[in-house]
Amino acid sequence: MQPVAIVGVGQTKVEANKIRERFEDMVFEATNKALADAGMTIDQIDNVTTISNDFWDGRTISSMAINDACGSYDKNVSTAEGDGTFGAIYGLMRTLAGTFETTLVVAHHKGSESVMRLITNAMFDPIFERSMGIDAIASAALQAGSYMRKYGISEEQCAMVSVKNHGNAKKNPYAQLAMDLTVEEVMRSEMLSDPIKKLDCCPIGDGAAALILATGERAKKITEKPVWVKGVGYCCDSYHLGYRDLAGCDALVAAAKQAYTMAGIVDPRKEIDLVELHDAFTYQEPFWLEGMGFCERGEGGKLTESGKTALGSELPVSASGGCLSSNPVLVAGLVRIIECALQIRGDAGEHQADGVKTALAHGVNGPAGQSHCCWILGGEA
Amino acid sequence: MADWRDEVEPWVLESRIKVPYTWTAGETGSHYLLELKDNKKFWGTRCPQCKRIYHVPKRNCPECFTECTEWVELGPLGTLRDYTIMRKAEPRLHTLPVPFAYGVIFLDGSDTGFLHLLYEYEEADLAEGLRVEPVFAEERTGHILDVKYFRPAKAVS
Amino acid sequence: MGKKVAVTGVGITKQSSVRHDVNGVEIINEAVRAALEDADMNRADIDAVVIGNMDHFEGINYVEAWSIDGNGGLMKPTMKVTTGGCTGSTVAMAAYYHVASGLFNKVLAIGWEKNSESDTTGAITTAFDAIWDRPVFAGAVAGLAVEAALYMHETGATEEDAAYVAVRDRKHALNNPFAHLHINLTIKDIMDSPYLSWPVKMGDMCPRTDGACALIFSSEDVVDDFPMPPAWVVAVANRHMYTYTADADFGSIDGPYWMTSLEAASKDIYSRVGISDPLNQFDMAELYLPYSFAGVKWMEALGFTGRGGGPELLRSGATDMGGKCPVNPSGGVLSSNPIGATALLRVADAALQMQARAGARQVPDAKLALCTGFGGCYWSDMLILSKDKP
Fold this sequence. Notes:
A: 381 residues; alpha/beta; 14 helices; globular; C: alpha/beta; two-stranded antiparallel ribbon
């Protein structure tokens, strides 16, 4: 892959209900923050990729709402629908294709305007599954139960992820749910769908994010701290929950392998300093870390329990608080990339981890982790 | 000077999207749903290449990309793999009162599982490997919910 | 620089008003398998899949995930893009970028629609701003009728001029075995059809169609793997410049804009490819003309003639089969409109022309082709294809 770098990032604070703002207000804020971060003006942006979802937005061609706000007027502009990591890959492809030197990628989401359980129910097949009322929580619970039973992962281990991430969020001014919790409090929270309890779940929030990609030579002219894209990979498993091993995560294994191969990473545990996970539910930290090869299959619970995924330890995972503290759907993936970039630059503020040279950002599409996307970012070209 | 935006009352309009749909089940899905309705029978399709038996049926094997035209009768008993007890009601979605369970069930003879509902169970009985049987609706319409739910199998088989 | 990209496989299902024999995933599979067969490929040879839809047209969220059994992407990189009516050309452009980026060599691009299953007008209405536009706006026809009325007012063009396009594209469709409508019409037939929203009549509008289309986009490094000659993608460009309905600046004849997004996109792509005289430089065009008036006015926006010159251009026969630059040899959107696939069909048919295998609709010795896609609120996509490697 030709060198491409992230040269500017911007994000809004994620909130439960940004009642004073529409999509375009949030996107305008995120876009301008990314431009300011890069020291660029909108006319220096060659093309734009937007990310939104028509179901969540209650609008066909949902991206139409924000074309003014992202500055795409009289520019090449297109829309990817799905997690922000996937949309950013489309932006990366456009940057690599030889036509453009700079690409703006923006995502927006206002979960407060729709009903999460009804929207996520529409992820499922209309003929064979949707009428059973299954939603994001129930499908995650099916997966959590199978994974945890198969490998002996305890609910307490999962609760530790909630405690850690909500605690990390206290150091992140953009996070939605920042709080001091104990494992007992998580364990005592309302059981929604066994084994998933309320504090095992992300909140759905409102927010927007933007990043700017640039080709190698241009990136060096724009910023002294370009964050380089070292590798990407994405992969989609089968759709129907009964057609795949829910206790496995084959698509993540494949996506991570592609990204590692491109980045030349042989031992992720040694070579990757920080991970921003798409951890919408607590079981996903141990589960996804196993899939990415940070530990053996079934060892993820112990890895979390050991404290090694805490900020300040050897492999900080979701130092920002992760999806568990803030989940503006779709935007969440873009924020994972942005957070990794900030960590590599040393600009993450209070939740900065020490010595981050290489980081992994992760995103998920589809029910129960059907499709995964991995980005490896680094400070050296 | 005060910013007018701090003063304005945020105004929120309520609406809902109403777009009617009809979903064609396709020839394969039609055969399946009509058998469920008329004869209370479950059928799967077999891939001619990898021999995998799909339930619910697939018209083409996603792996081999060949057409699956052979029907195989399955069940009616099955074995539970994944399950979760739903405790948080959502009346706009649920057809059963909480708590009820979702399960991925492998009907006897099938190589793949399918999602359905579980009811009339003791919570302690729910486990991977539980044998389950379908409870059919009296009035069937050619719909996956012509099976109201599965429950632990009464007869040992 | 990016890799050069070519279309190396084409799969098109028969287009018809209702396909009850297949559901959405199955009609996608039909097109995908046709494309793989055409390209002499197996599913294993696909590096990545890109697909699109409009969620509320099919009631399907995460189409790339839902269609995985049929779309060939199982355990492969799979992505969704969407831009309304031009989703098909957006998918084509995304596939182009997948390959041009150097990340993938063989990419499957898929467009599909089961229009018979949805309420198109209900869905299109949701494309407009919920607070400012939706309460007073319904469907696509009225917006287009405003453009048509203004065009007639500014230029003196007539409804008969537009009817010429409706007749021409349907006549061309008679040569296309995949086309939905096979009807020989006269200008009088169009003029006699009922008004939907003046001056647009039933005969001026595209049909609603069930159908799917899949194309293989390949890198220059692997084009020799395929049985058919490559149809090269020379360049792609697009613009979208309307957020609210009233942003649609249909233009006055002496104003700055005529059709803002199409003019801006053509300026971009023509300058990169060196097109100064499209009528003489392109050998044929597959244009997304959703209604007949577009076939008059948009020819002007595309630079085939000056403002107000559309009617004369048409009547010269230049856009007919056998003319200087036949437009829509396939029969175009006015003959087949599976919305999510419609714009991809433009690229598919242009590719067949560049490969000299378009059968009865082949334009002899066609070497350079223009394709467009048109989407909600005047989103304009453009692709230029050529027989020779750029």
